[in-house]
Amino acid sequence: MKKSKKTILDHFQEFFQYLDIEKGLSPGSQETYQRFLSRFSEWLENSDNSDLLPHELTDQHIWDYRVYLSKRKNHKNQPISKKTRNYYLIAVRNLLNFFADRDIEALPAEKVKLTKQDGDNSLNFLKLDQIQKLLNAPDNKKRTGIRDGAILETLFSTGLRVAELVGLDRDQINIKENTEDLEVVVTGKGDRTRTVYFSPRAVQALRNYLSIREDDLDPLFIRYRGPKTGDRRISTRSVENIVKKYVKKTGLPKTTTPHTLRHSYATDLLAQGVDLRVIQEFLGHKNIATTQIYTHITSKKLREIHKKYHSGQNLENNKKNDEA
């Protein structure tokens, strides 16, 4: 291990290049890391630690940063959630992993402890009737509503990550006349490609949306507000706000996010009996262990089905009847 002469802040740009070139993260994911690390940068500067070198970072510094996060307020002037605080800490963890990968002496990443959350083992997902309410919420008489409907249908039909969705281009969407089928190859985390499949509802929503497009811009989903320059590709933050808008309109749980639709997609497939490794392929998970987080959600339902239908439940009664 070598001691770097550059400050932690000086390493940021190299870290972002590392995420792009070596980790193959999408532009959206890179943007997220930059957003979360900007808070760490803010703390380093406000605490007079802007000159801190990687090997000088200590457990006490991390503790002080956690205290700093706990006192931060969100846009509603409320303390930021434990979940959000953990996102900030995970970004620091990955920065420390970058140092280790570069043989730069620094605090081990495991020294950055995450805040324990209530219900850590829970996973947010919507039931089908809730999904139905959400998908029907956009106003299909407005161009933004038609676009939003296509976004929601695509998220639930494909299980795409938000960064993957906003990265789609129009030339990837080849909807043939009189067909309800659509398959699209996308590139996800780690530069891994996979095929995603669109339901007839999603295909129709996309067909409706594309029929009102009067531009020749490359992105599949574009913004209608703001400057009319550039490719006007919609941002991940905008998609998050779109989902939030319809969640509020329909009275669905406030914890619902675009990723909730991905969870709902996977949970529905598992509940229908789809093999876990197939779901792994659909979601683009590198490791099956990542996909296994969905199994505990359906275990209760499967237990109820077993109890209701398995003949073993009646063996004792049958034995008693035989003896009689």
Structure description:
This protein has 324 residues and is mainly α. It has two domains: 9-111, DNA polymerase, domain 1 (Orthogonal Bundle), CATH 1.10.150; 128-304, Orthogonal Bundle (hpI Integrase, Chain A). It has helices spanning 12-21, 27-46, 59-70, 82-101, 128-135, 143-158, 162-166, 200-211, 236-250, 258-271, 276-283, 288-291, 295-309, 315-323, and strands spanning 183-187, 193-197. Strands 1-2 form a two-stranded antiparallel sheet. A hairpin with a 5-residue loop joins strand 1 (183-187) and strand 2 (193-197). Helix 6 runs antiparallel to helix 8 (200-211) and helix 6 packs across helix 10. The termini are far apart. The model has no long low-confidence stretch (mean pLDDT 87).
CATH architecture level-2 label of the largest domain:
Orthogonal Bundle
As laid out across the biggest beta sheet, the strand order is 1-2
Unreliable residue stretches: none
Oligomer: single chain
The number of distinct structural domains comes to 2
Radius of gyration: 24 Å
Classified by CATH, the class of the largest domain is Mainly Alpha
Number of helices: 14
CATH homologous superfamily grouping of the largest domain: Intergrase catalytic core
Topology pattern, helix = H, strand = E: HHHHHHHEEHHHHHHH
Proportion of helical residues: 40-55%
CATH topology of the largest domain: hpI Integrase, Chain A
- Protein structure class: mainly alpha
What profile does the largest beta sheet have? 2 strands, antiparallel
Range of strand content: under 5%
Instruction: Characterize the overall form.
Output: globular
Mean pLDDT: 87
Separation of the first and last Cα atoms: 79 Å
> Could you tell me the number of beta strands?
2
